[in-house]
Amino acid sequence: MTESFEFEDPIDEVYAVRRKISSRYGNDVRKIVAAAREWLKQDVTAGRVYVSFPSARIASTTA
Question: Is the whole model's pTM more than 0.85, yes or no?
Answer without folding.
Answer: no
